[in-house]
Amino acid sequence: MSARTARLPGLTAYLGAQGWGYSVLDGSALAAGCKANDSSIRAEDGRLRLVSRLPVQHDRAPQDAVARGPDESGRPTHVLSDACAVPIGAHDLPLSLKESEAGVYLEPDETIRLNGEAITTSRRLRAGDELTVGGRSCLLIRVVG
Question: pTM score > 0.85 for this model?
Answer without folding.
Answer: no
